[in-house]
Amino acid sequence: MPRNPLERLGALDSNTISDALDFLGLPGATYGLRPLWDCPAVVGRASTVQLGPKTDAAPAVHLISPVIDAITEEGRVLVIAGGIEGVSCWGDILANAAVARQIRGSIIDGCSRDIAGSEALGYPVYGRGVTMISARNRLIQIASGTPVVMAGVTVREDDFVIADRCGTAFIAADVIGAVLDLAERIDKRQTAMVAAVRKGRSVADVMHDREFEAIGTSLDRGAK
Question: Measured between alpha carbons, how far is 15 from 7 in angstroms, rounded to an integer?
Answer without folding.
Answer: 17
